Amino acid sequence: MNSKNFIVLTLLVSFFYGCNQEKGKVEDWVLVNEWADMTLYLSKNTPANSPTYASRAIGYIGLTMYESVVHGSPDYQSLAGQLNGLESLPLPEENKGYDWQIVFSAAQAEILKGIYRQTSDENKLKIDSLERSIESELNLLAVLNERSKTYGKSVAKAIYDWSTTDGGHRGYLHNFDKEIKHEEFPGSWKPPLFAQSFSHHPLHPYWGENRTFLIENAALETPEIIAFDSRKGSDYYNEFLAVFEKEQSLTQEEKEAALWWGDDPDDTFTPPGHSFYLTTLAVEERRPNLIEASASYAKVGISVADAFINCWKWKYYFFSERPNTFIPKYIDPEWESFWPDPPFPSFPSGHAIQAAAAATSLEYSFTGVISFIDSSHVGRKRDELRETDFRPRPFNSFWDVALETADSRFYGGIHTPQDNKVGLTEGKRIAENVNNLNWKRSE
Predict the structure, then answer these.
(1) What is the pTM of this model?
(2) How far is CA 216 from its chain centroid?
(3) Which residues neighbour 35 within 8 Å (Cβ) at sequence distance 6 or greater?
(4) What DSSP designation does 373 have?
(5) How far separated are the first and last CA of the chain, in Å rounded?
(6) Domain segments of the chain: what residues?
(7) Other beta carbons within 10 Å of 294
(8) Rounded to 5°, angle at Cα 335 from 334 and 336
(9) Is there a shared CATH topology between the 3-163 domain and the 188-435 domain?
């Protein structure tokens, strides 16, 4: 979407849906998706927004969605006391009225300006503009409006304050580590010559030390990796041979998948942003109420955030090479991957682990079949170098998205099958832990 038209479109959506209801009301799912769209806009249009930082952002933004309105629903309960180090959050005043849509909107404005404090002043004004437009549309009594705003912002501020202690606060200030020393060994990662990033220094090598949202996710066992063995016919060799052979036979559809799921942070809203975008499609299809919609974003955000922390912990533990190192040395010296390497080690795949986490969360929140079309990159210019267009992609399940996301990195030549297999397995496990939190009072 053209960024200049984003806010105009957002406000038009709000206006037209609001006109179809009683005066002073906005459909819950529209309200929630408006703020999710704002998150995606900021993710795409804020400098230095790496996939790691974006995963953290949607974790706290999704949690704020949920916690801002949870006390407006008697069936749900707060995650305070269940999450890692989050002991308590502000409570609404007893016997006082609140408009939970205003609470939600105020909380989103507050957390977005905190998490994306590095975004432009122009973008911050867009956040304020969206908040004011919603207040105006709801047209509440001043005292109810102010009480609701104050409470929403207090919840967001408490969550933001908690976020500053997780190890990733303002991580965009030091994306690439120039000082890291790592002993070289057979099969170790080396900075790419054919690179996706301008930097050849590794991205966020200490991200895996950040606090996870769930203690259970921090305690997951380290997955197993196939040991280095350059001999032809070994299990290790065959992993890279599969990548080499696939690159020789890519179909046009596989090339399109490789580009679609690349989600380069310089051009898109990042892979975590793509997972947030998929949540908007589910919310638009099912049109849940305020608490259900908020819970779905919280589950996806927390799952993806914890998936990235674990993935980065394991990436820098194994410090494993990518095909662009192994294949030219042992299979074909002239080989290059279809897609350029990102600036960090390989195992396991970050795309696979976060996509599996998001899919597992979404299929838990939205049971049954949801068919949808991912149009997030429609309108982007054709990639002339790879002779590939950006075409909308239809799906019949979110797990199909996870599988294609993982496969896309194989098609791109930057991940081996084991990178993807382990990523899918671990992402599912991480999200299941999130799903198993006591979201409802009866659980």
Answers:
(1) 0.93
(2) 20
(3) 65, 104, 105, 108, 112, 130
(4) E
(5) 40
(6) 3-163, 188-435
(7) 31
(8) 125
(9) yes
CA distance 239 to 259: 22
Question: How far is 287 from 30, CA to CA, in rounded Å?
Answer: 8
pLDDT of residue 12: 40
**Could you read off the pLDDT of 183-238 as tens digits, one per residue?**
899 999 998 776 665 667 899 999 999 999 999 999 999 999 999 999 999 999 99
52 and 344 Cβ atoms separated by less than 8 Å: no
Q: Determine the pLDDT at residue 198.
A: 60
From CA 324, how far away is CA 341, in angstroms rounded?
A: 8
Average pLDDT, integer, range 54-70: 98
The pair phi, psi for residue 388, each rounded to 5°, is -140, 140
pLDDT in tens, 267-297: 999 999 999 999 999 999 999 999 999 999 9
Q: What's the token pair of residue 177?
A: 């580590």
How far apart CA 242 and CA 400 sit, in angstroms, is 22
Residue 242: closest CA among 415, 32, 438: 415
The architecture CATH gives domain 188-435: Orthogonal Bundle (1.10)
**Mean pLDDT over residues 299-327, rounded?**
98
Residue 32 burial (CB count, 10 A): 29
Going by CATH, does the domain composed of 3-163 fall within 1.10.606.20? yes
Give residue 271's pLDDT. Answer: 98
Residues 389 and 253 sit within 8 Å (Cβ to Cβ): no
Burial class (CB in 10 A: 0-12, 13-18, 19+), 80: middle
